[in-house]
Design goal:
Layout lengths: L3 E7 L2 E6 L2 E6 L3 H6 L7 E6 L8 H13 L2 E3 L4 H20 L13 H18 L5 E5 L6 H7 L5 E6 L6 H4 L5 H8 L4 E4 L2 H15 L3 E2 L2 E4 L2 E7 L6 H8 L6 H12 L4 E6 L8 H14 L7 E6 L8 H21 L7 E4 L5 H8 L4 E4 L8 H9 L6 E5 L12 E3 L4 H13 L2 H16 L3 H11 L21 H5 L6 E5 L19 H11 L4 E6 L4 H8 L5 E4 L4 E4 L4 E4 L8 H16 L4 E4 L3 E5 L8 H13 L7 E5 L3 E6 L4 H9 L6 E6 L2 H10 L3 E6 L8 E3 L2 H21 L13
Parallel strand pairs: 1-4, 1-6, 4-5, 6-7, 7-8, 8-11, 12-13, 12-15, 13-14, 15-16, 16-17, 18-19, 18-27, 19-20, 27-28, 28-29
Antiparallel strand pairs: 2-3, 9-10, 10-11, 20-21, 21-22, 23-24, 24-26, 25-26
Helix pairs in contact: 3-4, 7-8, 9-13, 9-14, 10-13, 11-12, 11-15, 19-25, 23-24
Length: 750
């Protein structure tokens, strides 16, 4: 039977040696509590064992056996690299950025290699464990490179990834210097999940705008392979929490609450459980509580706030400062409003287990869950599940992921101190009938959806990907080891017709950012000086731009899809259309595009000799499809539109004069009558015109996975360059060994 591998940085148990004896205890945290019920004979949890000391061979065997008995497999990590991976990158870079705390980002990323190493060690360990047909489900931001690393190993497994923290808006994510690597790493998965639809939308927008993989229904198309992107909020085991709350034995926390109420029967308890983290909004919560006491002095002595805030990541300076600020603020408030026998805020810096927390949940009046931002926050759901008595009030931040499911809580903006204080007062004074009605609705939402249903929902909404229309994904792309055999079939003389954007150079946000890099220029120089091949760049770009980049090389240049051409041998330019042709209709399209640019932020209008292009890759507001539909309808209503044609490109809409086509470039070369074989490489619909002309009289290659008439496919521009390198080596070897009678030297080569 196929198995499920849950993969996370930490295992749901932590180990420690006590007098030579290994002890395992359940880990604290939402991920561990949420996924622990899933362990069974067909599920294996892989992660770090948490042990930092050097161990003997016998101890390592003991550790592996102990975790194996719990359904876990361990991965050993080098301590120095792990420290940098965890503190400097995972929690020093990704954590603040994903929680919109951009001011906390470091100036440099010196430990990026350690993050890569730890992800690679996880991939190596998985390669030892998995079998074809298994499912690997990777958890959270520590392992964002792992999906692609597994895919690159071709292990025959289904790969899923779930992000348990927020994913930021694309304009914030773009600040990350390693943004491309992170997105491509995550996109190695077949399915990617987030707690909310908003976070899923942020991710898709970032992918579109940064690495240029297009959206498709319910996901993204990545190198011809559909990646499903889903929203699936994590739940809690409601019946378990209700059972815990019903226990009578109590614990340290419950005893403290009971003792306070014995001393003060009128006491109302506000309760909060957070990690000591700057994203949890602790200081703002205490300031709101202080404002409550200022505005309602009659509550003094009648309310107390119990704050559970165990320390975490205290090796990081930001967390040390957070702890100091919190403790100073609590001291100030207690010093201002406290009296002998009464402290407004009771602060516990240690963690409590689920049994103690569950019983405390059942005894409090108001639960405060007010993070500045949170991926989900299971504490809110645990509290609701614990209240079988239908009493108690939940005050919930509008920036917690749980808010989408818990609209019957008192929802607050934690940045608004006065409004949060007012919500606390409303919770304390709410009539019992209102409290019970709200709690009844909240429990209906929480109790029906536990962790097991969450898993089922995630995998049911993200099924194993089906083959896309056309060629099989993954199998369709030529692999690097196949290129020499393919190229060996080609014999000089050859004419290479190659597109630029998306083919020689990856698609970028702004057209002017795609100037050729040094390695591309060197590759084209070697190829164009190789005997037996002439190189034609056939692009939709403006001719002047192509000429500026490449005029020093013996390349045939064809701008605007062949509308303007350049012969490097004669150094003459030629036009496909009559320069005196009436282009008034194009002027009308240009004016229309400019009107839309004024309305929709991020649009870019590009004017060419025979066409007008509207680039919408950077459009920031609203879905693009309604805008395109309206714009196309207006274009079709323009006077003289019968002399134009509309082309849908990759994140652009181009309107050009009829009669221009890349096919004309290829046909003109073929009509010269000399025996020559043609190669055409391109990535969009305009390149299909070249493929149709060449058909079986040469070789055609499509870049990417979209439907095509090309004979072969290359995954991306990097593989295109590899193909050209192999071609140049093959031709150089061929012409050195034998110079054919019909040898054709490229222009400029004697």
């Amino acid at each position: 039977m196929n198995r499920l591998f849950i993969v996370s940085h930490r295992l749901p148990f932590s180990g420690c040696f006590d007098n030579g004896e290994l002890r395992l205890k359940p880990s604290v945290g939402g991920l561990a509590s949420g996924l622990l019920p899933l362990l069974n004979e067909n599920t294996i949890w892989l992660g770090w064992d948490g042990l930092t000391q050097k161990m003997s061979k016998a101890q390592k065997t003991m550790v592996n056996k102990a975790f194996q008995d719990q359904g876990c497999a361990t991965v050993r990590l080098p301590m120095r690299a792990h420290h940098a991976f965890y503190n400097d990158i995972s929690n020093g870079v990704f954590w603040p950025l994903y929680h919109n705390q951009t001011g906390r980002l470091p100036l440099t990323l010196p430990h990026w290699a350690d993050y890569q190493l730890i992800n690679r060690l996880f991939a190596d360990r998985l390669a030892e464990l998995v079998k074809p047909g298994d499912t690997v489900w990777i958890q959270d931001y520590h392992l964002q490179l792992l999906p692609k690393m597994i895919r690159d190993r071709d292990l025959g497994v289904h790969i899923s990834f779930f992000m348990h923290i927020p994913f930021p808006p694309s304009e914030i994510f773009r600040m990350l210097p390693i943004r491309d690597e992170i997105l491509e790493g995550m996109l190695g998965a077949d399915t990617i999940g987030f707690h909310t639809q908003g976070y899923a939308d942020h991710f898709k927008q970032a992918v579109e705008s940064i690495v240029s993989h297009p959206r498709v229904p319910d996901g993204l198309m990545v190198h011809g392979r559909k990646v499903s992107v889903v929203a699936a909020p994590l739940g809690v085991d409601g019946s378990r929490w209700a059972e815990i709350a019903a226990h009578e034995e109590g614990g340290t926390l419950v005893e403290a609450i009971d003792k306070m109420r014995q001393d003060n029967p009128e006491l109302n308890v506000l309760f909060s459980v957070d990690r000591l983290d700057y994203t949890k909004g602790l200081s703002r919560k205490f300031l709101a509580f202080e404002r409550l006491l200022e505005l309602h002095p009659e509550l003094l002595g009648k309310i107390t706030l119990i704050q559970i805030a165990p320390t975490s990541r205290d090796e990081l300076p930001a967390y040390s400062r957070c702890k100091q600020q919190v403790e100073q603020l609590i001291g100030s408030i207690n010093g201002r409003f406290g009296v002998p026998g009464y402290q407004p805020i009771q602060y516990f810096a240690s963690a409590f287990n689920a049994e103690e927390l569950g019983q405390a949940y059942g005894k409090i009046n108001v639960m405060l869950v007010t993070p500045l931002i949170d991926g989900m926050n299971l504490v809110a759901k645990e509290f609701v599940a614990s209240r079988a008595d239908l009493d108690g009030v939940l005050v919930l931040s509008e920036f917690a992921g749980a808010v989408d499911e818990m609209r019957d809580a008192l929802i607050v903006n934690p940045y608004d101190i006065d409004a949060t204080a007012q919500a606390m007062y409303q919770a304390l004074t709410m009539p019992q009938s209102d409290r019970m009605l709200r709690m009844k609705k909240l429990r209906e939402a929480v109790m029906k959806f536990n962790a097991r249903e969450w898993v089922q929902q995630f995998f049911s909404r993200a099924p194993r990907p089906l083959p896309a229309p056309g060629p099989e994904p993954e199998k369709v792309f030529l692999q690097a080891h196949e290129l020499p055999g393919l190229v060996s079939r080609l014999k000089a003389p050859l004419a290479l017709f190659i597109d630029y954007d998306g083919t020689l150079f990856p698609i970028v946000r702004r057209p002017e950012l795609a100037s050729p890099d040094a390695s591309l220029m060197m590759l084209l120089k070697r190829l164009s000086h190789t005997p037996g091949i002439e190189v034609h760049i056939v692009s939709g770009r403006r001719f002047d731009e192509l000429f500026h980049w490449f005029y020093r090389l013996p390349l045939y240049l064809h701008g605007e899809h062949g509308g303007i051409s350049y012969d490097p041998h004669t150094r003459q330019r030629s036009l496909l259309l009559d320069p005196k042709r009436d282009l008034t209709a194009l002027k009308r399209v240009h004016d229309l595009f400019e009107t839309y640019k004024d309305v929709y932020k991020g649009l870019l209008v590009e004017k060419k000799a025979f066409s007008i292009v509207l680039h919408y890759r950077m459009m920031e507001q609203g879905p693009v499809e309604p805008m395109l539909e309206a714009l196309t309808a207006e274009i079709q209503a323009l006077e003289g539109v019968d002399m134009l044609e509309i082309l849908q490109g990759k994140k652009n809409l181009e309107v050009r004069a009829k009669g221009i086509s890349k096919a004309h470039v290829v046909q003109k070369r073929m009509q010269r009558g000399d025996p020559i074989s043609c190669i055409a490489i391109g990535d969009d619909t305009t390149d299909e015109d070249m493929f149709r002309v060449i058909q079986e009289n040469g070789m055609t290659l499509r870049v990417g996975g979209e439907s095509s008439k090309a004979q072969y496919r290359l995954r991306d521009s990097a593989m295109v360059r590899e193909f050209l390198r192999v071609l140049e080596v093959h031709l150089s070897h061929e012409t050195k060994s034998t110079r054919p009678l019909n040898f054709v030297a490229p222009a400029g080569v004697k």
